[in-house]
Write a structure and sequence with these properties.
about 220 residues, alpha+beta, 6-stranded mixed barrel
């Protein structure tokens, strides 16, 4: 029944050219809508609790071929929507660096600030790395709000930062809401080939030189 009400509300919103009224009540009537005799709100949802009970902790870890878990879409100080924030606005983290524990980076054989390859089951990116020992071993983070193209001084459009949606798999998602698990993306790391690292470095310098010139 609850799902049916949700579907009906969604259909009404999509079909209307204006706002959709979901109830007609005065604010003073709100508490009267709680119909349970004990006057308490029921937060437990049987369907969700049954689904949670079926989860197997043994399957929650990273698969062997993708041993790291990436939080794709971390909130940071300077990763606002690029629709109105160009690269010149970023006073920190201009390339949207991958945060990684120093031990994990050391095992990879890379140094802080270098470009490394990150790959999921559906995509691959070259990203700048940044040591952050607040990250647990095996845990990584990339910010949202990067990855759009930005014009260099000569007019060529260059990608500014990681397009993290290329790493997320639409099929790996919440079965109730259908939202991909952006904060739990299994990935692997490798050293970026020299030619790719050099290309990313040159692109970064061109983007930020162009942005600085427009200030």
């Amino acid at each position: 029944p609850d799902q049916g009400l949700g579907d009906a509300l969604f259909d009404a919103i999509v079909a209307a050219r204006q706002g959709t009224a979901i109830t007609h009540h005065e604010y003073s009537e709100v508490w009267s809508l709680i119909s349970h005799p004990d006057r308490k709100v029921r937060l437990a949802m049987p369907g969700m609790l049954e689904w949670l009970a079926r989860l197997d902790p043994e399957t929650a870890g990273a698969p062997k071929e993708f041993p790291f878990m990436l939080a794709a879409g971390q909130r940071r100080m300077f990763n606002a929507n690029q629709i109105f924030r160009d690269p010149a606005w970023r006073r920190d983290d201009p390339d949207g660096a991958l945060l990684i524990n120093s031990a994990d980076l050391g095992e990879l054989g890379a140094r802080d600030g270098e470009w490394i390859a990150i790959e999921s089951a559906v995509g691959r990116l070259i990203v700048r790395c940044k040591i952050d020992d607040s990250m647990r071993n095996g845990q990584l983070a990339l910010p949202h709000g990067y990855g759009q193209s930005y014009p260099a001084a000569d007019g060529e459009r260059l990608t500014n930062g990681p397009r993290i949606n290329l790493l997320t798999e639409s099929g790996n998602r919440d079965p109730i809401a259908g939202t991909p698990y952006h904060k739990h993306v299994a990935v692997r790391l490798s050293l970026a080939p020299a030619h790719e690292a050099a290309a990313c470095q040159m692109q970064s310098e061109r983007i930020h030189a162009s942005a600085a010139a427009e200030r």
